[in-house]
Design brief:
Pfam families: EVE
Organism: Indicator maculatus (spotted honeyguide)
Number of helices: 6
Strand order of the largest sheet: 4-7-6-5-1-8
CATH class of the domain at 71-236: Alpha Beta
Protein name: Thymocyte nuclear protein 1
Radius of gyration: 18 Å
Structural class: alpha+beta
Helix content: 10-25%
Shape: globular
Function: Specifically binds 5-hydroxymethylcytosine (5hmC), suggesting that it acts as a specific reader of 5hmC.
Domain EVE: 73-235
C-alpha cells in the first residue's frame, strides 16, 4: 500500500502565513521546453555560522566576482495536517517520515514540470530541509538526504492514486521521484516568518537570502538552495527565536 503523497504542486495554495504570495505557473501553464532539466554539482565546503561568517567568507573570495549560481541543496515541502485529495489524506509530517522503515521513503506525487526537473537534478547524498507547509505555522523542522536519485514515480500509473496521470506512458514516464532519508531534526523550529524577515533585509541591503526561491516561487513544493542559502538558514538554528 503506497504511503501518503508528498505532492503540493498542482492546485497548491500559498502558505497560510504568506497571504501576499504571488501565484506561480501551474503544470498546465508550464511546458517541458520552458523547464529544461538542469543538473547540479555540490561544491566542497562545510556550513558556516550566521550572517557575519557568511559575509566574511564572501569578502575573502578572490576576484570578488559572483560565480554562476549552483544549487546543491534543497527544500522539500510537505503537509503535516490532514487534507483530503480525491478522497486520500495527503498528510505527511516529519514524524511520519521518522516512522518509516529505516526512516526512508519515496517522494512521490510531484506534478509540476519545474519541480520535477529539480527532482531529476538531485544527487546522491545531497541534503534538504524538510519544510512543514500549508499549516498553522509553516517552517523548517528537519534535515533529510537524498538516498536514491530520480526514477519513475509509480503513482502516475495507479488509477486509484489521486495523482494518476492518464497521459503518462510507462515507456516514457512524465513524472519522477527520489528517495529521502531522515538525518536529524533542526535544533529548533525555524518558522517561515523568521526566514522572511531575513529575506526582506537581504533583499534591501544584500545578503544570501535575497533571491531565495521560497519567496520568489512560493508555490513550488521542490525548491533548490545555493550553498550560501543553505548555510545561512542552517545557522539560524543556533540563534534564539526572534
Amino acid at each position: 500500500m503506497p504511503w501518503p503523497s508528498r505532492k503540493r504542486d498542482k492546485g497548491a495554495v500559498a502558505d497560510k502565513k504568506e497571504p501576499d504570495a504571488k501565484i506561480a505557473k501551474t503544470e498546465e501553464e508550464t511546458s517541458d521546453k520552458e523547464e529544461e532539466e538542469k543538473s547540479t554539482k555540490p561544491p566542497a565546503g562545510g556550513s558556516k555560522s550566521g550572517w557575519k561568517n557568511w559575509k566574511k567568507t564572501k569578502e575573502s573570495d578572490s576576484g570578488g566576482e559572483e560565480s554562476k549560481i549552483t544549487y546543491c541543496h534543497w527544500l522539500l515541502k510537505s503537509e503535516p495536517e490532514s487534507r483530503l485529495e480525491k478522497g486520500v489524506d495527503v498528510k505527511f509530517s516529519i514524524d511520519d517520515l521518522k516512522a518509516q522503515p529505516n526512516q526512508t521513503t519515496f517522494w512521490d506525487g510531484v506534478r509540476n514540470y519545474q519541480a520535477r526537473n529539480f527532482l531529476r537534478a538531485m544527487k546522491l547524498g545531497q541534503q534538504a530541509f524538510f519544510y512543514h507547509s500549508n499549516c498553522k505555522e509553516p517552517g523548517i523542522v528537519a534535515i533529510v538526504k537524498i538516498v536514491k536519485e530520480a526514477y519513475p514515480d509509480h503513482t502516475q500509473f495507479d488509477q486509484k492514486d489521486p495523482h494518476y496521470d492518464s497521459s503518462s506512458r510507462k515507456e516514457n514516464p512524465k513524472w519522477s521521484m527520489v528517495d529521502v532519508q531522515f538525518v536529524r531534526m533542526t535544533k529548533r523550529f525555524i518558522p517561515l516568518s523568521e526566514i522572511k524577515a531575513h529575506h526582506l533585509a537581504h533583499k534591501a541591503a544584500g545578503g544570501p537570502l535575497k533571491n531565495m526561491m521560497l519567496f520568489t516561487r512560493q508555490r513550488l513544493s521542490i525548491q533548490p538552495l545555493t550553498q550560501e542559502e543553505f548555510d545561512f538558514v542552517l545557522s539560524l538554528e543556533e540563534e534564539k527565536p526572534q
